[in-house]
Amino acid sequence: MATFTLRLNDELKAGATEVAEYYGFDLGSVTRAFFQQMIREHAIPLNLRSGEPNDESLRAIAETDAAIASGEYEVFDDAASLLKSAGR
To answer: What is the DSSP letter of 71?
Structure first.
């Protein structure tokens, strides 16, 4: 069996400990589970995507909300109807 040493700042360790303990784990158990998942999936199991929409998406969401609020939108039964409406 090997020993693994990890340097973390106090804030990061406290936050990670809080989350692990919420689920009934300690940091050592979570770390071992992370490594086991890495091996099982042959990948690094991290979500590196931002959970926040980008500016273009935020504009589209705002436009959609405004169209719904004003009633200025069309409903299509299928993609073909939508494309026909757009002249494609």
So the answer is: T
For residue range 25-57, list pLDDT tens digits in order.
999 999 999 999 999 999 999 887 778 888 999
> What does the longest C-alpha to C-alpha distance in the chain come to?
67
Residue 63 to residue 58: CA distance in whole angstroms: 9
First to last CA, the chain: 64
User: Burial level of 17, CB count in 10 A (0-12/13-18/19+)?
Assistant: middle
pTM: 0.53
- Residue 42: C-alpha distances to residues 36, 60, 61, 88 (Å): 10, 37, 37, 44
